[in-house]
Amino acid sequence: MNLTTHQLAEILIGVARSQQALIEAIEGMKAGFKGTYLAPALDSVAKIRATGRPLMLQEFPARVLLQCQGRAGPNVAQIVRDLEALLAAPQAAAAAPAAKSDTDLDMT
Q1: Helix-strand-coil split of the chain, %, nearest 5
Q2: Among 59, 70, 82, which residue's Cα sits nearest to residue 8?
Q3: pLDDT at position 52, please?
Q4: Are 66 and 42 in contact (CB under 8 A)?
Q5: d(Cα 72, Cα 13) in Å, to the nearest integer?
Q6: Count of alpha carbons within 13 angstroms of residue 85, beta-carbon side
Q7: Directed axis angle between helix 60-69 and helix 5-29, to 10°?
């Protein structure tokens, strides 16, 4: 079975919508949950603030969930374009990260 990028985008949107339903249920039980707890954690996972680096496939589902939280909802055509770009990009650099020594500590 081969999935198209459009089908994969639809699956990601479906998963994000089910996650959004859970978020709305928690927000209903505990007002302020989204702004206080969820938004900072989701921004961190989606690496929204990391402007100097390219989007990676592992961050993409969190970005789709962020789109589901907006009023307009996810843009399927844009998600398909982003997926195609991510899947076409060479993954060799991501698959084999350079080994760091003990002195190369990143404290960011």
Answers
A1: 65, 0, 35
A2: 82
A3: 73
A4: yes
A5: 13
A6: 10
A7: 60
What are the tokens at 106? Answer: 């990143």
Q: Where are the domains of the chain?
A: 5-89
Give yes or no for a contact between 11 and 60, defined as CB atoms under 8 angstroms apart.
no
User: Which amino acid makes up residue 102?
Assistant: D
pLDDT, one tens digit per residue, over 3-32 is 899 999 999 999 999 999 999 999 999 999
pLDDT digits (tens, 9 = 90+) for 43-74: 888 887 767 777 788 888 988 998 888 888 88
Q: What pTM was computed for the model?
A: 0.70
Instruction: Tell me which amino acid residue 98 is.
Output: A
What is the spatial distance between Cα 5 and Cα 84, in angstroms, rounded to a whole number? 6
Q: Which two tokens stand for residue 91?
A: 């993954």
Calpha distance 82→55 (Å, rounded): 9
